[in-house]
Amino acid sequence: MEDLQLNISTTKKKNSSSGRPSPKTSSDYKFLAKPNYSGKIIARKRPQNGIPRKFIEKYSEEPKNKIAKLSDNNVTKPHDLQSKLRDLSENKGKFHGRNYQDVTDDLVLKQKQRSGAWISSLFKNNPDVPRMGQRAVKPVVEKVFAGRTFQDLNLHPHIVSNMKQNMNLTELMTVQQKAIPVILEGRDVLIRSQTGSGKTLAYALPIIEGLQAIRPKINRHDGIRVVVVVPTRELAVQTYELFEKLLKSFIWIVPGLLSGGQKRKAEKARLRKGLTILVGTPGRINDHLRHTHSLNFAKLGCLILDEADRLLDMGYEKDVAAIVKAIEDHKKAATYDPMALVKQTINKAPEKEETLIEDPNKEEMGDKHPLTDVFLSTERQTILLSATLTKAVENLAGITMKEPVFVDTSDGKAVVADSLKPNKKDEVKSLKIAAQPEAVSPEIKLTKQKSDEISNNAKGNANTGIKAFSGANHPEIFGTETTENKHKPKDDKNDSDSDSDYEYFKVQKELGEDKKNETKKVDEKEEQEEQPNMFENALKTAIVEDELVLPSTVNQTFILIPMKLRLVSLCSLIVEHCILNKKGGKMIVFMATLEMVDYHSELIETVLSGKDGKKRKQKKGKSDEKAKKKKGDDEDKDEESSDEYEIDYQAPAEGGLVPMEVDVFSLHGSMPHEQRMEVFKQFRTARRGVLFCTDVAARGIDVPRVDLVLQYCAPASATDYVHRVGRTGRAAQVGAATMFLLPSEAEFVRHLEQKRIRLRQTDESKVLESLRSVAPTAHTVQRAAIAVQAKLENTAHSSKDWLARASRAYTSWVRFYSGYPREVRPYLDARQLHLGHAAKSFALREAPGALAKRARSDLNLKKERPMNRLSVKEEEEKKRPGLPKMKPGAFGSKIVYKQNSMHTASEFDSGLPPLDNYTKKKKK
Ligand SMILES: Nc1ncnc2c1ncn2[C@@H]1O[C@H](COP(=O)(O)OP(=O)(O)OP(=O)(O)O)[C@@H](O)[C@H]1O
């Protein structure tokens, strides 16, 4: 192995005219081979506490007097700085206005200035990188497009033409083909299909179809008819914008947005004005339920929970439960009519008619969908959607849905499983008579276990009462409709000649007695044991098998990278993808905590393009404030022009590694709302660039042209992996997803393989290649990497502020790492971490002990317990009592609690657990 212990020195040329040092370029770095190299790899001992002993001695001479003066009881020797520092720290870290950390920071910064030739040991003492090989994993595949068009769905012509003209969409996606007819029937539906498969339109189109058909036309004052609950603000904005586009032809249907971060006052005003479709995040909707009288769900016909599994995670579950309860309460309150109740008990009218609100204009209505009936009734339709299902979703479905249908689009399963239960004897009987072999479309394959049962049912032999969703029910989709049966009543099966009629009745008569007995027996049996439910079975299979589906158009890889090389490898990928790629690449980098996102985005932007990322953001913040003031407080931010979102870039500063600007964006849950929305909008329209983010961007967001997803930190679950990867390869587009793993984390790949996710290992030695283009004087890739690392470290040690942010990011990551959920902890084990190497991957030169001390004295790290910021806080609850408080587990004890892991917290808050609180509780 080549000797990589190199002295890197920056040559400080003086600018002759200004006397300032000339701009540093990559060529300014000199690589000096170690003299008298003997061929051995020499591990140079790192200074303890990040302060070299020699330096301490030298430094302590300079401020000797100063420090000597600080200590009145001069017990220790004046030159013994270390013991003085200890004294300072023991003295609660404060001494004459300066604390221990201040003094240490000065030392570390001076040390950097002194060490113009810092010796980097990037390539020494790294663990071996194993070759993982690939197991025979057959990924689950889903067919994205259905081969049918929107016209086949019998939707309003304006919807179809709008889709074509404004969105350029004509062909149906599989999930849309399967789900839209079921939703139009007014049934409760649980939809599972892969990321980017068009689930949003799958529920948005039938909803609009149902609403536009109501006569007389509804208006915004009639009350909210549809609520769409989504987990993040970005997804809320995106969904709202989609509704706005789709509703261009139906201006009497008004969509509205309630997402956190906006002014309550403006939102209240919007609610007072009236809305038909409300899109929002759970916390904010819940917040308005408590404080805004005009928000009423009495007329609600449809509740949609997008990313349902995420909505039931810790932090959201309470809010979702409160929304469901509010809907039920409002509806009950609106329909409470004592006289009607008396009449009901006297007349005992059929169930369905009871629920229908009398519509005086019924005759005016033309051809309307059953869904329109639902909108006009006191009933509620519930739609749950996600690319991944959990036990919690199953439980929620059990509690909030009636006779649901499960739509799963994965190949080999392609389930549309109905839950109509067999204990409804009337339905069972009618099904027995009506069931004919053609009733089940060959296109619909059912779950493996239940397929036999269904085929029996279809032949009329079985009396399970399970109504298979069939082509006969939706002839317009499945092409089973003939001109003959189109005009016949549905239960009229006798389209044969008189002979066959005779045969039919003869057989019926002969078998009459036997059949009666058989039916009796079966009915008795049914009473004894309830027949298995098709929906439940299909759903259970989907959850138990735990098969995760990813778009087949995404090339999934992983790279095993030793800890020390992670940061330079990240730089290299960004250079390769966003700078060297002539077409202009767009990538998303997922990180564990918001501190990491902020620090890495600023550091990499500063080092690569020479701009100070932090300053640029601050400047941007100020210009935003100005723009806001100009605009006034109370108005709709949604209508802001995109010009106001333009970043006012500074001229590239000195010493960037690349000759062009790199568009770096960052997104996490604790950013100011305006900035968050602005970043999201900008990244959506950008042609190239890199977005650093937490899992806040992992769900649902649809950013065009993202061609690479990098998971810099391993996800907290296989499900999170799926959603992160799902940000690329959307709508059958080609994409790439790669994941950085430490050699100690290699087995995580096996965990994913168990869920039928197939990844390929990429050669880690190739990852650094593109760094040669930013350090052209380096003769080897390793030398280029060392140069870039030196630059990163110098930047991170260029000021106290940088140093504080670096160590905060490092600490937040260490804490995050120890909080991985139990399921993945065997693969992502904090005990395997080399914290010294980890510090290097944050461009830090201090030893872990010194960083831990720094973390303890960092006030910014002592934040309150991380929580969903959107939730109503306990104190607030006391001050303004509203709806009855929902406790965790409000959907019943069945809900499985997730560990209060950092991965959930990281989206919303600092990403730091309240260590003190935990210890206190334990002690009690
Ligand atoms: N019929 C269609 N033909 C072509 N593109 C479509 C069609 N329907 C939707 N799309 C596009 O597919 C992309 C993904 O759609 P959408 O965001 O609804 O996916 P999703 O299934 O909700 O994904 P996720 O699970 O990540 O939330 C969008 O850009 C959308 O415009």
From TrEMBL:
Its EC number is 3.6.4.13. Residues 635-645 have a biased composition (Acidic residues). Residues 16-26 have a biased composition (Low complexity). InterPro entries: DEAD/DEAH_box_helicase_dom, Helicase_ATP-bd, Helicase_C-like, P-loop_NTPase, RNA-helicase_DEAD-box_CS, RNA_helicase_DEAD_Q_motif, SPB4-like_CTE. One of its GO terms (molecular function) is ATP binding. It catalyses: ATP + H2O = ADP + phosphate + H(+). Residues 1-30, 443-501, 513-532, 611-645, 864-890, 904-924 are annotated as: Disordered. CDD domains: DEADc_DDX31, SF2_C_DEAD. It comes from the Eukaryota. Residues 180-407 form the Helicase ATP-binding domain. Keywords: ATP-binding, Helicase, Hydrolase, Nucleotide-binding, RNA-binding. The keyword Phosphoprotein does not apply. Residues 574-775 form the Helicase C-terminal domain. Residues 454-464 have a biased composition (Polar residues). The Q motif is unique to and characteristic of the DEAD box family of RNA helicases and controls ATP binding and hydrolysis. Belongs to the DEAD box helicase family. RNA helicase. This is ATP-dependent RNA helicase. The lineage of its organism: Eukaryota, Metazoa, Ecdysozoa, Arthropoda, Hexapoda.
